[in-house]
Design brief:
heterotrimer, A alpha+beta, B alpha/beta, C alpha+beta, A: alpha+beta, 9% strand, B: alpha/beta, eleven-stranded mixed sheet, 15 helices
Chain lengths: 95, 493, 502
């Protein structure tokens, strides 16, 4: 299993991480090393084994349909890097 | 002895007996924290808040009231959101994020009367085993090897909490454990670290790393302290869908009774090739100690053990890549300057805000979930998890608790392993299986290496059987009689 | 957006000629599938306790969970689960007792978590069906592929500032049901009729308010064309088509566009397009062109959603009568299939009709509703929920017509009075003396008065029996319109010795 530079560029884009061109190759090397190590999982026969979907054996808890939160627009803005009144502000998104 | 060196139980009893006030305790610890800044154990100190809380505790104690942790000063890993107190998760991306809410676990502690000293250093987003990935710089291990001035790592990711407990900079601390982040630093700093069963402590308000593995737990000076603190940390929380509806017992009471007849399993797969002989020797000694107290030692097999680490390094980064998508510079945290469009804003903010290890894991996680790779990696890893959990279920047919080493070695020097990710990941080889299966595990200090560094043993229990884990841990603690303390080299002149 | 298996589920019989599109090189068949997002009617959001009410101040209805704050966790709203199951049952669909919530990962400013919690491989509701009634009286079955629960996103406003977009998360986290059809529709009328029928069903069920203006129901329409019965063509997905009319227009335009491209030697590119209702055309959405890789995986913050069969049965028992059943019942009661379809299209209208028709002739009641009530509502630009005269009052009026208490003409006047002034129709009939005169003495007196005043006409009528109508009119006038026209007719014939078949 080998991860190439273009793959790193593609997944970095998916993950919205700006990776400088000169770092793509070293990262590809690191990831290749890691995936070669992970390769050992292919030795295990997993046919018919169910995937773990919940760590605890429990029925999902349901919440009652009640309004218990909200009305905290100002509190939400206190950590915002940029806001206008109670809107979060981002560079213009072109549709 | 300074009041700072009290165990949680000793301080509690002294407070109840009015031999000391919470204010005095807090003063001693605040001073110790100030003097220990070279350890970089705390990233945020909150002395004012501590004194305020101590005063309130003293008032309650004076009236004969107070909770289980009334007036006891604690350190909080910086992964727990604390209302009005900066929370960084060891990352630059959170900037000066001040949560407008309090995590369930810390709220439980404050409800029990505990006092907050500050927030402790950690690997960024809890990703690391040495505290070296912290945006605040590494925390240092209070321990140094005999005749050496080299700075050692305190383990990770709860390295700051471990250092703070080991250096008497708090009575106890909270940690979180995703692959060993409580037990591994506890073992290499000579303290007790307990990772409870998944679902025992609420995850609400704890910055998420890998949701199906993360679990909060106590880091303490003694096993008794771990029992006391877990009782207050744990709860059934309606705000966390994975919090389990199991009542929280009085763990301290359940410490009594000894281990006569307890069946202790020794998993043969944990004898790793190339492991230092000191580790194997200590493990054997641990088994003897338990046997001497009436336990029955049985050999068991956990055949999928060797697949645990690679499984973990698929599952944890996959979940992390998604959990960390919310750090985008829009609603809080770091935002890159001069971005022209939204994509550039995301890419630059995240590249500037996340450190190298976090970025590496985000890339791994994104890759293993991406189209065409999901089945080969993520789906396979989740099946492996089923097999690993089954191994434990079968082993528990023959025993009640498992005894293993806690780490493959003692604390290593800062910078030693930071160039080789896989070598770094191997630090969690004995602890990570427990997270994958969601079980409780405790690391208890058990001895020193030839050059004077602490080593720990690990006990692993059945789901929600923390009581047995603690009782067996107490047996190890009593037999090991580990009374060592690191030399105080860090005190600022 | 869920990819649907683009194969018709129908029997694949020969396509109906009328639905085909005529191109330069022959006829084309349109294949349409739909993905409808219906906002679940609930007080609070799918995974948080923030309100779902429409029209609040920006970010006023946002919990820390909805804002994707660190360490926040989702807890599912029981009501939303119930509503999804109720809708599934209303679509005669399979309810999956175990379903899984997945994360759909992508970055967008109105998606605070960086992922949408949705259901990917294991939705809560499986296959079902909807029957749509077309204008020509035929019925078409549209297969439902699935229904799943998911979170809505927030809203980005692009027109507030020249260089910035503003983000409002009030909608973030509101529960949506995504309802995916099989590609079973073949023309714009069917597509519009499907959406209309689906809207009627969810409104009957009370699971979605169906308010398309407020975005409570939004449709994405998948359109492709092919030679009749031939292999499927490449489809385009038209996003956010927000009215029945737009659905029809979008399908018409898109089918034409695709036919023209193919006939011009080109090929269709699979893409997402946007319907521009001002220009009445679809256009490519470049922003969606970047290859998506949503990296779905089960949300580790949630456990599988397990339902109890007995609980599902309880919901099934509580379902209201749905449009199809109601329509069938109306037809049995004597309505034409067309009238029945019109009346059941809106639950409020059907409810109003049922109360109005209680104990009176079904057909007469339907005519009254269609001609008198809907006509007046239309005139006054009101909807059935604003109707100023209660169904019970109308029922009383119709009852009085049937009992011969008032004439049809007086009934209309009476309705006008109640419409504008209000009041009890029976009391008004009494107080204003609107009662129909059937008393032969009074009628005979009026006839005598008319005869006396028009001796020439009496002579004329002997030659021209058609003039009888003129006499009836005069007598009615004489009685202030209150005389029973049938009684007047009979009395006149007797008095003037007119033949029975006049």
């Amino acid at each position: 299993m080998s991860v190439d530079k273009d793959t790193v560029r593609r997944i970095a884009r998916l993950a919205r991480l700006a990776v400088p061109e000169e770092k793509l190759e070293p990262l590809a090397g690191e990831l290749t090393g890691l995936f070669n190590w992970v390769e050992m999982l292919n030795e295990v026969h997993i046919e018919g084994v169910p995937a773990m979907t919940s760590v605890v054996a429990q029925k999902l808890k349901w919440r009652e349909d009640k309004v218990t939160e909200g009305g905290a627009a100002e509190a939400l803005m206190t950590n915002a890097p940029e806001h206008e009144a109670t809107f979060f502000v981002v560079p213009k998104v072109v549709e | 002895m300074s009041a700072a060196a009290f165990t949680l139980a000793e301080a509690r009893d002294a407070l109840k007996a009015r031999k000391i006030s919470s204010r005095e305790l807090t003063e001693a610890l605040v001073k110790a924290v100030e003097q220990a800044r070279p350890l970089n154990a705390y990233v945020t100190e909150t002395p004012e808040k501590a004194f305020e809380m101590a005063a309130a505790s003293d008032a309650r104690l004076a009236k004969g009231e107070g909770g289980a942790l009334e007036g006891l000063p604690l350190a909080i890993k910086d992964l727990f959101c604390t209302k009005g107190v900066r929370t960084t998760a060891g990352s630059k991306i959170l900037g000066n994020f001040v949560p407008p809410y309090e995590s369930t676990v810390t709220q439980n502690l404050w409800n029990a009367g505990a006092v907050m000293l500050g927030k402790t250093n950690m690997d960024e987003f809890a990703m690391g085993s040495s505290n070296e990935t912290s945006a605040h710089g590494p925390a240092f291990n209070p321990w140094r090897a005999r005749n050496s001035n080299a700075n050692l790592v305190p383990g990770g990711s709860s390295g700051g909490s471990a250092a703070a407990v080991a250096a008497d900079l708090c009575l106890a601390a909270t940690g979180t454990d995703t692959g060993g982040s409580i037990r591994q630093p506890a073992a290499v700093t000579g303290i007790v670290g307990l990772k409870p069963t998944y679902g025992r402590c609420s995850r609400w308000g704890i910055v998420a790393f890998a949701s199906s593995l993360d679990q909060a737990g106590p880091m303490t000076k003694t096993v008794r302290d771990a029992a006391i603190m877990l009782k207050s940390m744990a709860s059934v929380d309606t705000k966390d869908s994975t919090s389990m509806d199991v009542p929280v017992p009085d763990y301290e009471k359940l410490l009594e009774g000894g281990i006569k007849g307890l069946r202790v399993g020794i998993p043969k797969e944990y004898r790793m090739d190339g492991a230092p002989p000191e580790i194997a020797a200590l493990w054997d000694k641990g088994a003897e100690w338990l046997k001497a107290q009436g336990a029955e030692i049985v050999e068991v097999s956990l055949p999928h053990t060797k697949y645990a680490l690679p499984t973990y390094y698929i599952v944890a980064p996959a979940e992390a890549s998604s959990n960390l998508a919310r750090y985008d510079g829009v609603r809080y945290g770091h935002r890159a300057k001069g971005a022209h469009d939204i994509t550039e804003l995301y890419e630059k903010s995240r590249a500037e805000g996340f450190g190298a290890e976090v970025q590496r894991r985000i890339l791994i996680g994104t890759y293993v979930l991406s189209a065409g790779y999901y089945d080969a990696y993520y789906a396979r890893a989740q099946k492996l998890r089923t097999l690993i959990a089954r191994d434990f279920t079968e082993a528990y047919g023959k025993c009640d608790v498992l005894l293993t080493p806690a780490t493959p070695g003692p604390a290593f020097a800062v910078g030693d392993k930071s160039d080789d990710p896989v070598a770094m990941y191997l630090n969690d080889v004995f602890t990570v299986t427990v997270n994958l299966a969601g079980l409780p595990g405790i690391a208890v200090p058990a001895g020193l290496t030839a050059n004077g560094l602490p080593l720990g043993l690990q006990l692993i229990g059945k789901a929600f059987d923390e009581a047995t884990v603690l009782r067996a841990g107490l047996a190890i603690e009593e037999a090991a009689a580990f009374r060592h303390k690191p030399a105080n080299w860090w005190r600022a002149a | 957006m869920t990819s649907i298996d683009h194969a018709p589920s129908g029997s694949g019989g020969s396509p109906e000629k009328t639905k085909l599109v005529k191109g330069q090189t022959g006829e084309w068949e349109i294949v349409i599938g739909m993905e409808v997002h219906a906002q679940v009617l609930s007080k609070s959001k799918l995974f948080s306790g923030a309100s779902t009410e429409f029209g609040a101040e920006p970010n006023a209805q946002v919990s820390f969970v909805d804002a994707g704050m660190p360490g926040m966790l989702p807890v599912i709203n029981a009501k939303c689960v119930e509503q999804a199951v109720r809708t599934g049952l209303g679509l005669k669909a399979k309810i999956n007792l175990s379903s899984i919530f997945d994360r759909k990962n992508y970055f967008y400013p109105d998606l605070p978590q960086g992922y949408q919690i949705s259901q990917y491989k294991n939705p809560i509701v499986g296959e079902g069906e909807v029957f749509i009634d077309l204008k020509d009286g035929s019925t078409v079955r549209v297969g439902i592929e699935r229904l799943h629960l998911e979170q809505d996103a927030g809203k980005s406003l692009h027109d507030q500032h020249p260089d910035s977009s503003y983000v409002d998360l009030n909608r973030s986290g509101i529960a949506l049901m995504e309802i995916v059809t099989k590609p079973d529709m073949r023309c714009s009328e069917e597509a519009a009729a499907f959406l209309k029928k689906l809207r009627a069903i969810v409104r009957y069920l009370g699971t979605c308010d169906g308010n398309m203006d407020e975005g409570s129901m939004r449709a994405d329409v998948n359109v492709s064309v092919r030679r009749p019965g031939g292999p499927l063509g490449t489809r385009c997905e038209i996003k956010n088509v927000n009215s029945m009319r737009f659905v029809a227009q979008a399908v018409e335009y898109e089918a034409r566009r695709q036919v023209e491209i193919i006939e011009g030697g080109g090929s269709i590119k699979q893409e997402t397009r946007l319907f521009d209702s001002r220009l009445n055309q679809t256009r490519s959405m470049r922003s969606k062109e970047e290859a998506h890789d949503y990296r779905y995986f089960p949300d580790p913050d949630l456990l599988p959603l397990e339902l109890d069969q007995a609980w599902v049965r309880e919901i099934e028992k509580s379902l209201p009568e749905l449009p199809d059943a109601k329509r069938a019942r109306f037809i049995v009661a004597g309505l034409s299939p067309y009238d029945a379809s019109v009346l059941v299209a809106e639950r409020e209208l059907a409810d109003y009709y049922e109360e109005l028709a209680k104990g009176v002739d079904a057909k007469a009641a339907a005519n009254w509703l269609n001609n008198e009530i809907l006509g007046r509502l239309n005139r006054d630009s009101l909807s059935i929920t604003d109707v100023p005269v209660s169904a019970a009052a109308n029922n009383a009026i119709i009852g009085m017509i049937m009992a011969g208490t008032i004439s049809g003409k007086i009934a209309k006047d009476l309705l006008d009075i109640v419409w504008t002034e209000g009041g009890d129709p029976r009391a008004i009939v009494e107080s204003r003396g609107l009662r129909q005169v059937t008393d032969t003495g009074a009628i005979d007196a009026a006839i005598e008065a008319v005869i006396a005043g028009n001796p020439d006409k009496v002579e004329e009528i002997k030659a021209k029996p058609k003039l009888a109508a003129w006499f009836v009119g005069q007598v009615m006038k004489q009685t202030g319109g209150k005389a029973n026209p049938a009684a007047v007719n009979a009395a006149l014939k007797k008095r003037l010795n007119l033949p029975e078949q006049g």
